[in-house]
Amino acid sequence: MEGEAKMSECDDDRARSRSNPLEHVETMVDTLRQLRQLTDRGYREHRDAMHLNDKDMAALEYLSQEWKDERTVSPKDVAAHLGLTSATTTAIIDRLENEGYLQRRRATRDRRGVHLTPAPAMKDWERRHPVESLRASVIDAATHLGGEEARIVQGYLSTVLDDVRRRLT
Asked: Rounded distance, CA 15 to CA 12, Å?
């Protein structure tokens, strides 16, 4: 009886794939769309809960990655990365400093230079960022994959990423 049920499921799958041979592709695209929508919503909710705007978020995302990579960051680096004027960058840095996300420190070699360093609110921002939820979910799901499954998923995601990069350049 159990074998018949499995055969019936296989027959159903084959019939569906004959009626729509790209159904699995549509399902994968829909899953990626849902993932993007959830991360977009998480980003907006995080931004709004922290009373930030998109430029503030972009600056914090850049700073967070640079600091994780143990790089020294100046206001000029932020301006160059985000493509902003020095006046706009100064306004963003002032706001983020006032909110406790970063501190300005004089450079040790050249006292005229300023470096940005993380302040206590930065840790909370990083912890609550939706990328951390996504990262945790990816790790949880990946731990249940076998080696071959992981290689297949990695290959697929790498192909998609490479194609998106190619299309956007």
From this structure: 5
